[in-house]
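Two folds, back to back.
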Amino acid sequence: MKHIILGSLKEWFGYTRRERRASFILLIMIAAVAGIRFIVPNTKMNIEVLPVEDTLAMSDSTTFRYPLSHDQQPRPRRNTKPAIVVDLNKCDSAALEALPGIGPVLSARIIRYRNLLGGYAVVNQLKEVYGLPEETYDLVSGSLKADPGDVRKININLADYRQLIRLPYFERYEVTAILKYRELKGKVEGIDELVENGVIDTGKVKKVKWYLEFGSTISP
C-alpha cells in the first residue's frame, strides 16, 4: 500500500529524490525565517528625505564635520578689559584705595612718603612705607609703576643742610660730610667721587642715586 501511495505521489508531482530533498530544506529555511520574525520585534527606520537644494548644498561643502559634543564645543572668548596700572607718582588716594589690601591709612602713608622722597623711582620702594605688609605689597606690586624721571632731584653742589637732610636715605653725619667735602673740593663731579673718598658708602648709592644731580655751583 505504501509503495502504491509513494508511487502515485511521485507520478503526480514528478519529483526525483534530489528534488524532494531540496524541497524539504527549503521548507525548513522558510519556517526558520518566519520564526525569527516572531522572535525579533519589528523596527522601523525613519529616513529623512532631504530636499534637492539641501543635498546640493551639502555636496558643495568642502568638509563635513560631525556635531561636537558639549565638552568639545568651542568656548566663547571673554571680553577681558586691560589691567589698570597705577602710577605711584601721579595717583591720588582714591586710586590707591581701589587696590586690594590698601585702605585710607595706607594710601595716606604712601602719598606722604612720596612727598618726602620727592617721588618713587622704583616700585619696590613701597616696601619702605611704614605698616605696609609684605603680602599686600606682593598683591599690588604688579598693578603699580614708577618712573625715575618723575622724581625731584637735589643738586648736591647747591643744596644746603636742610635740603639734603630732607632725603630720608641720608643720615645727619653723611650730610655733614658732604657739605665739608664740597667746601674743600669746591664741586662734586659725581656720586662715584663721594664713594671713592668715603663720604657715602656703596650700599647707600643704590638708594640715593635717583635723587642726586651734579650741576654748576652757581645758582641760575
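---
second:
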Amino acid sequence: MKIVDLITVIGLIAGCALGAEPNPRDLVSQSILNYDKDWQAALDFTCTERDIAYDSSGHPKAVEISQIDVFKGTPYNRLIARDGHPLSLEEERKEDEKYQKMLNMREKETPDQRARRVRKYEEERQFLHEIPAAFDMKLFGSETVAGRPNYVIALTPKEDYVPKSKNARLFSSIEGKLWIDKQDVRWTQAEANVIDTISIGWVLARIGPGAHITMKQVKVDGDHWMPEEITVSGTARILLVKNRALGETVSYDNYKRVRPAPGIAAAKKR
C-alpha cells in the first residue's frame, strides 16, 4: 500500500460517517452508501492532484502535480510538473512511455480482464462497510463548515471487533473526529489520530502513535462530494530501522465533468 493510499484510507476511515439524524449506527451505514455513489461518480470527472512532501523542519522538499483522467473504467495519474516547473524533456519522455504503455494494455484487454480491473477498483473501499460494527460513535453537537450545518462526531475503535478484511485491520489503530453535512449526509472534514502502530507491508514501514491525519471534501457539480485535501504528520519507522518524520499534503482541484450524468445521458438517447 502506497503512503498516499494509506493517507486516503485513514482519512476515509475517520470521515465516512453520519448525517441528518443523531443515530450514529444507522447514519454511518447511510453515509457509506452515499460515499459509494460518489466513488462511482468520480469516474465521470477529471481533476488535478498536487502532492507536497515536507522535510523534518516542515519545509516543502518535493512538489508533484498530476492530471487524473479516466481510461476504460479506472483512473490514471499522469505527472505533469515537478517543484514548480514543467517536466524536463527526459521526464516527459518517460511519462509518455508509461502513458502509452497503459493505453496499449487497456486496449488489448479481454472483456474479462477489463471487468476484473474495474471490479478491483470498485472494491478498494468495500472494507469501509465494516465501520458501523468496528467503531463506537458519539454525537458532539453541531458546527458550521463552509456555511453549511454539520454534525460533529467522535469515533473510537471497539476493543473486541474482529476485522473481516485485510484493510479493516487499520480500524483498531485509529480514532477520529468528523464533521458531517446534515443535508447531504456526507463528511466535509475529518481529523484522525493514530493510537497504535500501523504497519505498511511486511517490513516496509510502521507509522507510530501520535500521527495526525486531516481530510476535507468539497461539493462538486452540485451533487457529489469529492476529495479536496488530505494531510498527514507524524513519524514512521522505515524498514524497521530508520525513523523518518512524515509530512505530506495531497490536494485536488479543477474537477471537470467529462461524461454526462446518467439521467442526462439517458435523456439524450431518446
